Amino acid sequence: MSVWEHYRNTVFLMPQPLSRRLSFAIITAHNPQGRILSPAANLSRDSRLRLELETAGFRSRPLWGCSPDFQHQEKSWAVLMHRDQALALGHKLEQNAIYWVDRDLLFLTPCLMQEEDEECLGLFSERVHRQAPMGLWPKPR
């Protein structure tokens, strides 16, 4: 399965969902350019991203982008910001793509993967889980 296919199949763990009327970005600092980093490196990158979002005054909420079986999980942020700002941040964080949610429609939007086209993946709310299956909730790092 290609990297893009993995992104297309992502589900989200979000204990406190946002209103379906909002538009927001889903951005991670984990695993830049699709390279798997150590938990410590990802934690450091996530801490810097959280601080940057807070300093800039963006409202955000944590969530986890996951493989459908919940075995791969990346800490991410749902961020209330303009789409262009989100794409610029995705580039800065060296992300292959970001997710954009526009009133519950989920879009997979390329950043570094310019050979791909933005793709609508359906309703965001249909991919949101408030809880992971027993024992698969993200572990603190």
Helical content class: 10-25%
Amount of beta strand: 25-35%
Compute the number of helices: 3
Query: Uncertain spans, ≥5 residues at pLDDT below 50?
Result: none
Category from helices, strands and their pairing: alpha+beta
Principal-axis shape equals globular
The profile of the biggest β sheet is: 8 strands, mixed
Give Rg in angstroms.
Answer: 14 Å
Order of helices and strands: HEEHEEHEEEE
Q: How far is the N terminus from the C terminus? A: 28 Å
Biggest sheet, spatial arrangement of strands: 7-6-5-2-4-3-1-8
Average pLDDT works out at 93
Count of DSSP strands: 8
Question: Can you describe what's shown?
Answer:
The protein is an alpha+beta fold and 141 residues long. 24% of the residues lie in helices and 29% in strands. It is built from three helices and eight strands. An eight-stranded mixed beta sheet has the order 7-6-5-2-4-3-1-8.
Features:
8 strands; 29% strand; 141 residues; single chain; alpha+beta
Short overview:
The chain is of the alpha+beta class and 141 residues long. It is 24% helix and 29% strand. It has an eight-stranded mixed β-sheet with strand order 7-6-5-2-4-3-1-8.
Describe the secondary structure blueprint for this structure.
Layout: H1 3-8, E1 11-13, E2 23-27, H2 39-56, E3 60-66, E4 73-79, H3 83-92, E5 97-102, E6 105-110, E7 119-123, E8 128-129
Parallel strand pairs: 1-8
Antiparallel strand pairs: 1-3, 2-4, 2-5, 3-4, 5-6, 6-7
